[in-house]
Specification:
The protein has 372 residues and is α+β, with helices and mostly antiparallel strands. Helices cover 23% and strands 37% of the residues. It has helices at residues 42-52, 68-80, 149-164, 184-201, 293-310, 331-340, and strands at residues 6-11, 14-20, 25-32, 56-63, 87-92, 102-109, 114-118, 121-128, 132-140, 174-181, 211-219, 225-234, 239-244, 262-267, 270-278, 318-325, 348-352, 362-371. A hairpin with a 2-residue loop joins strand 7 (114-118) and strand 8 (121-128). Helix 3 crosses helix 4. The radius of gyration is 19 Å and the shape is globular.
Length: 372
């Protein structure tokens, strides 16, 4: 991987990957809050870094404590003067209380951003270069908390479609989704049914099924779910978007979960790989190593590496990671795995949440970048 494509930044509890495109740069910034929820140093350091690089925030994810959202926004307002970008805050949906474990920021420089709104609320941004249009939506939620969970899923999709119209896109342009479901284990089947219904109604199965993450986590507004979206609409044949299979797993649709294992975008001399939330699930769709965090991590990382290798990438190409653990004491097992297997350090954020099956303890999502 050429250094001109990806740079890495580490300072105190901030880590970032900077991806250089033809006219703009993307910044994937992680703020580690696992040692403390004190924001006195981390947020000033973050904004100093963003200001130095003239990077504008597209969206922000906060993991661990929904009640901290207002405190974080207040601190950011003190330092930045305004916080227009959408902020999604989620926490464990099983009732366990954790302090803020981490924050992840998506930012960009070198392009003009235009706000995307839903009922006068900024829910994302769009920008473009000579080859494609891009859109990020974050903290997309239903309109009516009193509706059934399945109806709330439908509302989220309707809201996404409505906002994408402002970008001259539709859902077939969505390459990556994130869904955080309150009480996921209670109604994950209903969620998957609602997603499948939407995909059938909108012809998504014959177009591009997005990469995705589905995690159990409460959102700050008490809705059944919160959602984030990344969409890309090519302007010419220089941009190629393709689904990528997992060599060690079956299609997720085989067990009625409608997402692609990974999606790759090739634009100019840069390839970007978006790997969906991945857990210890074998080629038959069966959960493996129930109750054993060490074996689940080992199999999950083997599966992810196989996807990377299938695209001629490896761990050194990784630019953005979220680690999902069922319990707070499980991160040490991941750390040990990385040390034993000599994995290079990559930027990551930690979230303590519910994975999509009761017996699963760990899930990882990641992006990777390489030069063509």
């Amino acid at each position: 991987m050429k250094s001109k494509t990806v740079e890495k930044y580490n300072h105190k509890n901030i880590s970032a990957s900077i991806v250089s495109n033809n006219i703009y740069k993307e910044y994937f910034v992680n703020v580690d809050m696992s040692g403390s929820d004190d924001m006195k140093s981390s947020i000033p350091d973050l904004f100093a870094y963003l200001k130095k690089n003239e990077a504008k925030v597209l969206m922000q994810m906060v993991f661990g404590n929904c009640s901290a959202k207002e405190k974080i926004i207040k601190k950011m307002l003190e330092l930045n003067g305004e916080v227009k970008w959408p902020v999604m805050a989620v926490e464990h949906d099983n009732g366990n209380y954790f302090s803020v474990s981490g924050m992840q920021f998506f930012a960009v420089s070198g392009v003009v951003l235009k706000e995307l709104k839903l009922k006068d609320k900024v829910v994302g941004y769009k920008f473009e270069d000579e080859d494609a249009k891009y859109a990020y939506l974050c903290d997309m939620r239903p309109n009516d908390i009193l509706k059934s969970k399945k109806e709330q899923v439908k509302e989220v999709y309707e809201n996404v479609v409505q906002v994408l119209k402002q970008t001259d896109m539709d859902f077939s342009n969505v390459v990556r989704t994130w869904f955080y479901l309150d009480e996921l284990l209670v109604w994950y089947r209903e969620f998957n049914e609602a997603r499948t219904d939407f995909f059938n109604e909108n012809g998504i199965f014959v177009k591009l099924v997005p990469a995705s993450t589905g995690i159990g986590a409460k959102n700050s507004e008490g809705m059944a779910l919160a959602n984030c979206i990344y969409a890309v609409k090519p302007k010419n044949e220089k941009v190629i978007i393709r689904k990528v299979d997992s060599p060690l797993q079956c299609e997720a649709i085989n067990y009625k979960s409608a997402f692609s294992r990974a999606v790759e975008i090739q634009s100019g001399d840069v390839r970007k790989l978006f790997i969906s939330g991945t857990a210890s699930i074998d080629s038959n769709g069966k959960s493996m190593n129930a109750g054993d965090i060490n074996k689940q991590i080992a199999l999950t990382m083997k599966i992810v590496r196989a996807i990377l290798k299938s695209r001629n990438m490896d761990w050194h190409n990784v630019t953005r990671v979220i680690l999902y653990f069922k319990n707070k004491d499980m991160f040490s097992a991941f750390n040990q795995y990385c040390e034993v297997n000599n994995l290079p350090k990559f930027p990551f954020t930690i979230a303590y949440v519910t994975v999509c099956r009761e017996e699963l303890l760990f899930e990882i999502e990641l992006d990777a970048v390489d030069s063509v």
